[in-house]
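Bug: token stream looks shifted between consecutive jobs. Job 1:
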Amino acid sequence: MPAKVIVVYESKYGNAKLVAETIAEGMGQVEGVETVTSEVKAVDLKKIVDYDAILVGSPTHIGGPTGGIKKFIGKLGKLPLEGKSFAAFATYLVDKSFEQATKKLEKRISDKVPGAKLAATGLSIRVAGMKGPISEGELPKCKEFGSRIATQLKA
């Protein structure tokens, strides 16, 4: 049976969405891994338990993830997700916020979702301006991140 992955994101200007899609593209290069991307508002919580891995992404908003992503992670805590793999990703604009939102996402997931396993250290992707675009040289990191997690899930 294929490993099933959902990549959930919130995106105001499309940057986090592009990161999510590129991560999914990297996962798609690994045979036996099925990946779905979904905006956080469209996620069917009843189906989350069917996935082997849940990736959560957000733009950096005041040094952390968006409110919608925080609420989503809170809801995940009410589901039987023990042993599921997780990973976080975030886009950032200012160097001082590099990895800040990603680390907060990882901490929130480990605090709110008992038994969750971190599939990989989070990914922080730089954007060139408030509305983007994603900085040059960043998208290949997304593809590599997806491929690495997918390979690990298949192992």
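Job 2, same session, no restart:
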Amino acid sequence: MNLRIEDYFDSIEIYLIQNPIISTYEVIRKEISPIDGKLRIKAFIENNSTLEFFIYTSELNQEITQLKYSYHWQDFEQKILRRWDNAPHHLSLSNAPHHEHLSNGIIEPSFNIPDFFFVIEQIELILRET
């Protein structure tokens, strides 16, 4: 087991517990090996939306690197509100494969590679605006 990855995954769960916009969450998958880790969680948000995310991480030079990710935020009718991912299906975008799917169907490049904490911050900003 990799203690640095385990600490990172634990920090995500602590944040989910402490964040007031999160009603509850469910760990769907959590695997940690000596060199990498996978985490899938479904979080239920106060406005009846959900955030399901998957991250695949590795430790390189004592730093956690997010190799693959998908953060899918949807409303109670399962309509996409926003999705951040790095699946290689929009390679024509600048900064590919990192991109964002908006609720209106537009796909934009992501210039900041989002981590869990960035995504929650973005959701909080959007919820404050509505």
